[in-house]
Write a structure and sequence with these properties.
Layout (H helix, E strand, L loop, with lengths): L1 H11 L4 H24 L7 H21 L4 H13 L10 H24 L11 H25 L5 H24 L12 H21 L3 H11 L4 H24 L6 H47 L2
Helix pairs in contact: 2-5, 3-4, 3-5, 3-10, 3-11, 4-5, 5-10, 5-11, 6-8, 6-10, 7-9, 7-11, 8-9, 9-10
Protein name: Probable membrane transporter protein
Keywords: Cell membrane, Membrane, Transmembrane, Transmembrane helix
Organism: Kordiimonas lipolytica
Amino acid sequence: MATPINQTRTDAKRKPRWLARTTAGAAATMVAAYGGMAISVDHSALTALEGLFLYLVGLGAATIANSTGVGGGVVFLPAFEFLGANGHIAIVAGQIVGMSFIIQSFGMSTGSLRWLHRIHDARGTDTGVPPAVFLRMLALVLGCALPAMLATQALHTSPPEAVLWAFKAVSVGLGMLVLVTSWLGRGRAQNRSHPTGVDYAALAGLSLIGGVATAFFSVGVGELVALYLFVRNFPLVTTAALAVIASAVSVLFGVWDHLLSTPQPWDILLYVVPGAITGGFIARPFAEMLGPFRLKIFAASWITLSSAYLLFLA
């Protein structure tokens, strides 16, 4: 009688088959895509030192993005703009957002799979809100963000100044709110296990704004969703996983607009993409090492400072 019981317990800890198949399929797709890139580009276009620097840019951006839910474009856009403007690497301004979409398609996809495995890990002590609730929240976010992003890509080729200013201002405001509420509620707040109707309404509104912003800047939906969930004190796993997966799905849908319309510097992407994949892989343990409070402060500080820089100085 002991064997069936032990077997049942072992089976209960197994992760869903669809997750294993999705992981294998995603890994094969990324290997094939990167292999095609590696075969078709000129490997001598950049020096080894330049390649190492680009790898580290991808690593750092993806680690931040996949541990906090903030899109890697928050790092990629200013980094590539600086490199292109100063003549260090040949990047045209019109390519920067497309490059960010491509890089995040690799890095955020890797991070999404890592967080999904964490959610379905029966040995974990905190897997966030119930899976059914998580799926409802994710469906709402994507249902609002994707149409907004795709419509924006179809209707606009450059961001109106008012939209650019509003997105940066909202990011600064939410970032400051996270910092204040985190310090005031340190050690007292309890994780929420279920969203309220107000939470669903807020996520829908922020996802619409984030979808428009993502079309223009490659970041937006994950950033706003993560900040709101941090403010509302949802579990770290729920916050990071929801924001990372929403960002990953958004860039995968939006990257085609750039692949089909703008030539990309594949020699540069050849070095950044592996860094992004590495960062996506190590980001989850990095977030868990920081813990909920320090991760909130880290994410909010990064978003507030980078958005304030772009708002007032860029």
